[in-house]
Amino acid sequence: MLRLRSEAVIALTNHRGWSQNELARRMGVSKSALSRALSGKSGAGRKIIGGLLRIFPGEPLESFVAKEKKPGDNYAGSY
C-alpha cells in the first residue's frame, strides 16, 4: 500500500475549511480509515487514493503519495 503525504492532504483540507470528518465524508471512506492513513498507521488503499483524486481533481497523484524509498537511496557517494 502507498503512504500518504499527510501534510499535503491536511493543507488542502484546511485550505477548504473542511474538518477531517468532512473530508472522509466527501471521500466516501470512514473517519477511522482516513485517520489511520493520515497518521501512517495503515497504508493508503484504492478507496483513500481514489477519494482524494476525486475531490481534489486538479492535484496530481504525487501530491498525495510519499515517494517510496528503495534500498540504496541513502547512498552518499564514494568512500
**Distance between the amino and carboxyl termini:** 35 Å
| Topology as a string of helices (H) and strands (E) | HHHH
How many beta strands in the DSSP annotation? 0
Question: Please, what is the average pLDDT?
Answer: 88
Number of helices: 4
Please state the structural category.
mainly alpha
Radius of gyration: 14 Å
User: How many discrete domains?
Assistant: 1
- Tell me what the CATH architecture is: Orthogonal Bundle
Helix proportion: 40-55%
Q: Judging from the principal axes of the Cα atoms, what is the shape?
A: globular
For the largest beta-sheet, the strand count, sense and barrel status come to: none
CATH class: Mainly Alpha
Percent in strands: under 5%
CATH topology: 434 Repressor (Amino-terminal Domain)
Instruction: Give start-end ranges of low-pLDDT stretches.
Output: none
Organism: Anaeroselena agilis
Domain HTH cro/C1-type: 9-64
Pfam families: HTH_3
Protein name: Helix-turn-helix transcriptional regulator
Q: What can be said about this structure in brief?
A:
With 79 residues, the chain is mainly α. It has four helices and no strands.
Can you give a write-up of this model?
There is one protein chain. The chain is an all-alpha fold and 79 residues long. The chain is 47% helix and 0% strand. The protein has four helices and no strands. Helix 2 crosses helix 3. The chain starts with 5 loop residues before the first helix and ends in a 24-residue tail after the last helix. Residues 9-64 form the HTH cro/C1-type domain.
